[in-house]
Amino acid sequence: MNRKKDMTLPNHGIAAGDGTGEGELFLRNHITYIVERAWTVILVFVLSIIGNGELLDLVISFLKREKLDENMQMHLLWLLGAIALLLVLVGWYLNRWYRTTLTVRDGTITYRQKTLTRKSNTMSVKQVSNVNVEQNIFEMIFGTCKMRLDTDSLSTANKTDVEMILKKKRAEEVKKCILAMKEGVDIQEAEGDMDVEEYDILYHFGETMANGLLSITVSQLVAAVVFLVSFVATLGITLNDVAKGDYDHVFAGLGLLVMEFFTAYSFVWAILKKILQDFRFRARRKDDQIYVSCGLWKRKSYMVPVNKINAVKIEYPVLARIFGRGYLRVLNVGGEGEEADGMKLLLLGSYDDLRRRMEILLPEFQLPDLRERTRVPRQWMYIRMLASLAAGAVGGVAVYLGLRIGLGSEKGFWQDYGKIIPGICLGIGAAVMFLWLLCSYLRYKTCGIGFQPGELLLVQGTFRKEVSLIPYGRIQYICYERGPMEQFLGLQHGHVSLLASAASRCRRMGSFRVEDFQVLEEKLRETY
Amino acid sequence: MEFQKISGKAKGCMMVNEVLLSLICTMVLGGIWWFFREEDLPVSIHLVWVVLAVIWVVSLAAPFVRYERYRYRFTEEEIDVKEGFLFIERNIVPIERLHKIAMESGPVDRIFGLSKVIVTTAGGDVTIRFLETEMAERIVERLKTRINQYAVAEREEQKEDE
């Protein structure tokens, strides 16, 4: 069936005024753009008036038409200055709103911003890889949303990615139009936003909750432990001070407790955010597109064209790895907003779960049995042992030199502690060596490489684990590196380069035998 | 196709670059020695001269080792470059995946009549250094022809599909 139709667009209720005609889309941000951009400053302004008693008195006196004393007049000047600044800011955003436009015409999209720095980006509709729609709480109230066009070219990704705030309905229509032009089909045939009730995969609240809790990063975990320990310690000390009646220390303790409370708050919020952002995560495969939709307070829906996927990776954050759970991301260009290292396609699940769900969503990639991967040769550990010795020595000597430089002139210190300092430095050196060795051992046990019929399998990680599956045809080039010890032991390491965002472009391969990599070269050659 | 060695002039070019770098290091370390020579430091300031001696020895030896190790190969399908001094790097680039070819030569390169060819893929750049300018131009032409062949073949394939 020939689905190709005329690429010009019907007006379809979308083309707005401003001299635009049939087959042309002319868009400007919704007027709430100004509020959305300037609301923080407006809020600070309002709060500072409410919070500042004198300013509030001034406003009340002004309303009562009372005569102002000299002090009040000075406050009035400040207030007028602040209002003027606020108006300048609002004017700035108003100008920006008026002068930012998006035009879709004859298969090209032109984004213009004629403010102080004038810019105009033109790209072909065919270059659009994703039309994503996001909605935060503010936009939900006003019935607007952010429509983002992502391009699939690395060189243009940051320059031409376009974001517009539109009414939800209008954004859906524009999305449909752009997709229709991109696919060369009639607007009625084009796929719009995914129907909420239509999905192949849906995660329930319990799964989303587990996903949020197990996705905590090492730094968050460390922050939580440090907070808990310090909070309990401060609480104990403060209660003790209360019992003694030492109220000077009680106030200091309370201040510390408040600080620790905010640390806890940020930690809990990070987890809550993870739960909320993936709330009701659902995905659907239709033809060559995957539609994903999720979020509670910030709703997000994005589309991933299957032919633009350059690799997939399963990530196991530290906690999730303990429970044998990972989530799936796809590596492509475009769509790197908050997710700089690829778009999420499946939430945390066991390897078998992921394999089963991938068969539905992305049957082009098949997860292999990880036990069959080639592991890092034992000789690599010899190199790491030598390196850990060197790291320990450097650590110990650095601490010693630091003490000599910092406390060299403190003769009393050296008389009292001079004898134990070498022992302490030795201990620190040993601790560095042990940590280095531990990390090396974890990497040795985790890393691996495998050569599937169509894809390269890479397993990387120390505390967290990452499994990448890269089609040989998507590898842009291979780079090998060999240090002096590796040359001696017949090993080499390196990376493969992909068309992906900067964070994911280099997929590192651990240290393996030279012969292992020859298989990779042969597989790569089969693709050209 | 066998790996090829780079031009003999490369040794001179590398040597000039290394000597320039070592001179900068000498000035910096000499300055450090001058400022701290009378200070009471936990380690002798004269260690600076040992470090400098090592830098000069390595700098003078590196061009010979690097020259011997530098190899490149152009087949019909790929570019293969090996280089390095202590750490050896090898890059294999399929010609089919090239997006851009560039030729550059810095001031020191020009003194020796050398140029470098930079090939860009969608995933990054690979540079083939120390090529005689004439050779670099030939390589660029050959790569252009090959890329054009790929483009024509791809277009025909697309037509057939349609």
Explain this structure to me?
The complex is a heterodimer of chains A (528) and B (162). By secondary structure, chain A is of the alpha+beta class. Chain A is built from 16 helices and 21 strands. Chain A has three domains: 1-130 and 164-188, no CATH class; 194-367, no CATH class; 379-445. In chain A, strand 10 and strand 11 form a beta hairpin. In chain A, helix 1 crosses helix 2 (53-64), helix 1 (32-51) packs antiparallel against helix 3 (70-99) and helix 12 packs antiparallel against helix 14. Chain B starts with a strand and ends with a helix. The mean pLDDT of chain B is 90. In chain B, the strands form two sheets. A four-stranded antiparallel sheet of chain B has the order 1-2-3-4. The chains are: A alpha+beta (528), B alpha+beta (162). The interface between A and B is medium-sized, with 29 and 24 residues.
Largest sheet of chain B: 4 strands, antiparallel
Outline the low-pLDDT stretches of chain A.
1-21
Number of helices of chain A: 16
Structural class of chain B: alpha+beta
User: What overall form of chain B do the CA principal axes indicate?
Assistant: elongated
Sheet having the most strands of chain A: 7 strands, antiparallel
Query: How does the helix and strand content of chain A classify structurally?
Result: alpha+beta
- Through-space gap between termini of chain A: 32 Å
User: Given the structure, what is the number of helices of chain B?
Assistant: 4
Keywords for this structure?
heterodimer; A: 528 residues; alpha+beta; 3 domains; 7-stranded antiparallel beta sheet; 16 helices; disordered N terminus; B: 162 residues; PH-domain like; 2 domains; 4-stranded antiparallel beta sheet; 3-stranded antiparallel beta sheet; 4 helices; elongated
How is this structure best summarized?
Chain A has 528 residues and is α+β, with helices and mostly antiparallel strands. Chain A has three domains: 1-130 and 164-188, no CATH class; 194-367, no CATH class; 379-445.
